[in-house]
Amino acid sequence: MKFGLQPSAAGSPLLDLVLGSSAVSSAIPFKAAIAGLEVDLTSAAQLACSNASASITAQTQGLQFDWQAVQISSDVVWEFKLSAKNTGSDLITLSRLDSAALALQGSRWRVESFASAWGDEFRPKTASTQHDSFFGVRSGRSSHGESPIVYFIREDDGYTVIVSPAWSGNWHVDVLAGGWVSAGISTWNLNLSLAPNETLHAPSVIVAAAESKEVAQRNLQSAIRENWLPRTAATDAIPVEWNHWWPYEDVEVTQDVIIENAKLAENLAIDSIVVDAGWFGESKLDTNWTDLRGDWSSVNLARFPDGLTKLGDSIIEMGMAPGIWIELEAVGAKSELRRTMPEAMARDDSGLRPDPSYRITTVSLDPSDPGFLGYVCLGSQAGWEHTYNSVKSVLSQMKARWLKMDFNIDPGFGCTRTDHGHNAGDGLLRHYEGLYKLLDQIRLEFPDLVLEACSSGGLRVDLGLAKHVHCFFMSDPDYTEHHLQVLWGAAHMLPPLAILHWPWSWWRGDYEPSKLDWNNLDVETFDVMMRAAMFHRLGVSYPLPKLPKRILDRLSHHLEVFRNHIAPVLKTANLISLTDSPLRGNGGERNSAWQLTSNLNSTHEVHLVMSLKLESDAKPAMFKPVQLDDSQQYAVVDLETQNSVTALGKELNAESLSKLAGNKSSWIVEIRPTRAGL
Ligand SMILES: [Zn+2]
Q1: What is the CATH code for 3-227?
Q2: In a 10 Å sphere around its CB, with 0-12 CB exposed, 13-18 middle and 19+ buried, how is residue 209 labelled?
Q3: pLDDT tier at 500 (50, 70, 90 boundaries)?
């Protein structure tokens, strides 16, 4: 089957995206508007095109547009890039700069997407190209409101096109009846001022296409893993973290708590000890972490009397790597930073917010000062330098090899100040450009660092940030049903190498879905909880000294399985869901099954298949591993019992694999082609 790009037969509408023998999209592949009026590109656009890539230049209305489709893997996954240069002598204000536009061809397409909010990430939504639908966020965070990924599946033949704005701020995907799709930076309150000779780079949009949803999803994961995510030897080593947050939060964390846990972690397959919020600010035991964010140069000596350097050294002496949490852009209402660096604060005094499309969840705003947005504007030089120096200093003091970056703030349309070196209408764009530059600089200077973007609170899971961090923490809540729903959604965008989550944590707080009687927890239930979080990067948030011995023993076992069998394949693996998703509130599929596949059709080919019953009496799902050859012999090993069997691909299914694994509520088997068959 032929995939690719080709000039449209009639010369206009210009570019076809081809699958098989026909175009699935035929359009000028980008859109722009000046001060609300769409730019007519039909006569100006000049196309250069090969099967794998295409570029367009268009000179019109005092602007030069440069658009490119760059294939980012050997599969059909492109980055659609767009820039605009002001070639005239007057200031131009762009109000739309969509890097992707498609006109989907053929009959009706099903439209699949996800709503997203704290504790409610990756909630599936469906629509169709029979009617208009509009996707996007206005919260100033890419996944607060909706997730920046939309799947289009043609109902006749299953052909699939994925559209994903690679941007951490406000984005949109407009779908008009009949299949007109336009995507990029949100047009809401967008006023991008372009001075003469100035060039502006619009956020990219990732577009993937394949003959089925499954293949498109797999291709996208591979492309992001191989040619998009930053990777180093340190991050490919898949270190496992212990993090203090849920059992202690800020109020119960101290230096002694960290050391006491680290002494037990030392004997487990745990590589990093990550200190979460609670370490910074005034030296008092009763401070609230949200109020003082930004004061990264002061360590709370009431909780950490020996400071970060000593703590980091102690962790290193135990043979592990220290890590630290920081909400690098955040400014608490009561912080010193707010008082001492007013010039760096993001502000909006226009009085236009809030937008009612999301529930504002910024913590620590100031009701007496509604223009205070609660973050440092990284579009300002002063703000950027302060933030960069803060992160660098914290990492250096701690000798940290893990940085957890949070962001509990809704910037809305961003900073509208005009004394920051940006314009009133592009504050959010310049902030995120500043963030990306800062993260790139930090990675360069700390090559052994694992850089984690914490999602809820952060709520920025997008392919824009994916080019600047190593992994995304999926969601604050981690009860198993929710975790699996979030994972099911995240696998539509990210490879398992970019996904980090914890099994159900020991929560000290009173969040109802996370309540669990840890002292009476049975081992089989704990096994389900642990295994559910083992097909991607793994961390745990447990009070190790409090864990009942039977649970600590099982934790040790699972961490060894992860280290020996799963971590080594993550850097080459795709994650495939073999069943529908479980859904929060006792809904959806209750016997969730998953597959990791790595190095297909090579001597290192390996598949890991996992089954999880959310209730021990859940109805067994009738799944079958994929990407196996029916007539090939495979050696299958249950990673719990080491029971093994050799069987043909066609004989491997839910029933036969469950039987091998003793029909337990959860199991993981490893499947390898036998040498004779290769
Ligand atoms: Zn600003």
Answers
A1: 2.70.98.60
A2: buried
A3: very high
Whose tokens are 């590109």? That residue is 41
Query: pLDDT (tens digit, 9 = 90+) per residue, 356-401?
Result: 788 888 888 899 999 999 999 999 999 999 999 999 999 999 999 9
Domain boundaries, the chain: 3-227, 233-575, 578-677
Question: Which of these, 425, 31, 433, lies nearest to 192 by C-alpha position?
Answer: 425
Neighbours of 191 (CB within 10 A): 16
- In the block, which residue shows the tokens 């000049």? 46
Res 278 pLDDT > 70: yes
Query: Ligand 1 centre from 133 Cα, in Å?
Result: 32
What residue type is assigned to position 299 of the chain? Answer: V
630 C-alpha vs ligand 1 centroid, how far in Å?
A: 59
Fold equal for 3-227 and 233-575: no
> Which residues lie at CB < 5 A from ion ligand 1?
377, 379-380, 415, 417, 420, 427
**Block residue for tokens 């131009």:** 92
Which letter does DSSP use for residue 377 in this model? -
DSSP 387: H
CATH fold for the domain made of 578-677: Immunoglobulin-like (2.60.40)
- Compute the distance from residue 331 Cα to the ligand 1 centre, in Å: 14
pLDDT digits 0-9 by tens, 316-335: 999 999 999 999 999 999 99
**Domain 233-575: CATH architecture, name and number where available:** Alpha-Beta Barrel (3.20)
Please answer whether residues 432 and 137 qualify as being in contact, where contact means their C-beta atoms are separated by less than 8 angstroms. Answer: no
Q: Which of 212, 178, 199 is closest to 1 using CA atoms?
A: 212
